[in-house]
Amino acid sequence: MMRLMRTKQFLFTFILIGALGFTSCKSQTTATPAKKGVSASKMKWSERMASTLMMRHPKAFQIDDRTTAKWDYVHGVVLNAIEDLYKTTKDQKYYDYVKGYADALIDENGKIATYEEDKYNIDMVPAANILFKIYETTKDKKYLVAMQTIRKQLDTQPRTPSGGFWHKKIYPNQMWLDGLYMGQPFYTEYTVKFENGKNLNDIAKQFELIEKNDKDPKTGLLYHAWDESKMMPWADKATGKSPNFWSRALGWYAMALVDVLDNFPKNHPKQKELVGYLNNLAVALEKVQDKKTGLWYQVTDMGGREGNYLESSGSSMFAYALAKGVNKGYLPAKFKKVANFAFDGLTTKLIRVDADGGISLTQACQVAGLGGTPYRDGSYEYYVNEKKKDNDPKATGPFILAAIELNR
């Protein structure tokens, strides 16, 4: 009897593992989420990561480990990627997962729960990017009303004297590279689809201000932020620039350019200008790419300095932006190799296979900013000592996007 029970147990385990599929990471072999009958090792990295997130976070608002729904940019970043995966695969589960987030926060009248317009936080804009597809599919007016609410914020968002959007109400006269991604892709798609493109010049102006005031002429890289008032302690008293280059900030900027160009008309006089910015950034990024791994460091230009580390969110963002730039015809073909080299580094150096069969992208900076309380001074020591988090949404979303663009 005992022998029969052990035989049945062995057969059950064998069948279960076979259904899940095998994968390996270094010496570890474990099951991983897979399509029915498809080995995990043969799955696309985009679906492998998305399946992991959906397994661990059955409701999309849980992606950042929260228990109650919140309207937030990190959800927008990941769900925008999963929405792209739906467009690529036509697998309904991806669309349903994205729509589930919208429905958890938007009521029948289009009111967005937890959204506070009076804070003028540009980070609250990108979650609305998922609503274009949902509205187009459902024709339900509540999604349009929600988009109109977000669009209204941009009309009254405080601006620097030269016309740049403040990053937040609590950060007066400051433009952060992060903010270009947070606001401009939504602004562009909305004005093209619902306003006849009337605000395209204003969108281009946001990039022009950053290029003029925040770029380092020697490296071609852009600093994390620029304070037009030059009043912040972290700001250079002559230029207003913050002290260092942070890879994720540069990644936000790179993604902003390629995503804005999705909806920026080719015949618009400012389109070539934006493509030029992308080309200049691609050249600068290739120069500071780690030659051994293909990755980029947390503090972008200081790879050899003690404490610096190869960081996964910025590296994923660069891989995505460069690959998409080539695919769309904005960048020379050679940058596809740069993107693939980076993706190789991500999958061989920074991916871990876990006991539950899912994967984790390691070495992601959890958060970094400037000013605030406690005060963040933008120093080298500040950036390299911020906490790291595995599968941080700011890394997993761009990783999925990069995998889609590279067809990996």
Automatic annotation (TrEMBL):
Keywords: Hydrolase. The keyword Hydrolase applies. It comes from the Bacteria. InterPro entries: 6-hairpin_glycosidase_sf, 6hp_glycosidase-like_sf, Glyco_hydro_88, PolySaccharide_Degr_Enz. GO terms for biological process: carbohydrate metabolic process. This is Family 88 glycosyl hydrolase. Pfam families: Glyco_hydro_88. Gene3D superfamilies: 1.50.10.10. Signal peptide: none annotated. One of its GO terms (molecular function) is hydrolase activity. PROSITE patterns: PROKAR_LIPOPROTEIN.
